[in-house]
Amino acid sequence: MAARRLTGILSRLLREARNFLTGLHVALIEQSVETLELELLELEHVFLTLVLGSLVGLPLAPLGIAAELAPHLEDEVKILYERTWRGGDVISDLFSRMGGEW
Questions:
Q1: What tens digit of pLDDT does each residue of 48-60 get?
Q2: How far is it, in rounded angstroms, from Cα 84 to Cα 81?
Q3: What gap in Å lies between CA 33 and CA 83, rounded to an integer?
Q4: CA nearest 26: which of 34, 38, 98?
Q5: pTM, entire model
Q6: Alpha-carbon distances, residue 28 vs 14, 33, 69 (angstroms)
Q7: How many helices (H) and strands (E) does the chain have?
Q8: HSE on the CB side for 76, CA within 13 Å?
C-alpha cells in the first residue's frame, strides 16, 4: 500500500516537473522570437537609414550600393508614402505599430 502511494506521488512529481520544463521551454522560445523580431526591426531601420539617409542629411551611401539595395525598400517606401497622407493622425500611427498598415 505504501509502495503504491509512493509510486503515485513520484509519478505526479515527475509529471509536474515535465510540465514545468515544457512551459519553461515554450517561454524561452517565445522570448527568443521576440528578441529576433526586435533585432530585425533594428536592422531594417539601419538599412533604411543607409539607403535613404540623404533625405535627412546623413552622408549618402555609394550610389551603386544604394541602387542595388533600393528594390528591397519597396514595402518601407510604401509605408512612408502612406504616412505622408495620414499626416499627424496619431491614432492611425498607434494602430499601425500594433499590427500592420491599414
A1: 777 777 777 777 7
A2: 5
A3: 28
A4: 34
A5: 0.50
A6: 21, 9, 34
A7: 4, 0
A8: 15
